[in-house]
Design goal:
- With about 140 residues, the chain is mostly helical.
- It contains 6 helices and no strands.
- Helix 2 runs antiparallel to helix 3 and helix 4 runs antiparallel to helix 5.
- The longest helix has about 35 residues.
- It is rod-shaped and about 75 Å long.
- The relative contact order is 0.16.
Length: about 140
Amino acid sequence: MNQDREHLRLLAIFHYVGAGLAALFSFFPLLYTTIGAIFIFAARHGTPKPGEELPPEFLGWIFAVVGLLLFFLGIATAICILLAGRCLSRNKHYTFALVMACIECLFIPFGIILGIFTIIALLREPVKGLFAAAQTPA
């Protein structure tokens, strides 16, 4: 049982690292938002060169909105991974930790490794017992 606690502690630490990486990579879609803002600005205030057209303003809005949506989705995912790590360290909310481990398998390559190891650890009976013991009031 002590080995199971150690595995959960290590998985929690790796979830914290994974949440940091997810938060870092979620800033990349803001490049699309910046490009969209440039398109919007150019469409409203730019003067076309002879024989050229400016990009349409709606294209800029598409870039800006999609970039912001992807950014917020990435931040929400990072927060959920962080919460899953917290759940693993406190042995609470078994189902949430298991669902997040399955979702993490979508992120190649680090998420697959972390997700599979978390699923394997959470499906063991002694680990289920640790979570059940933490749920019952003392």
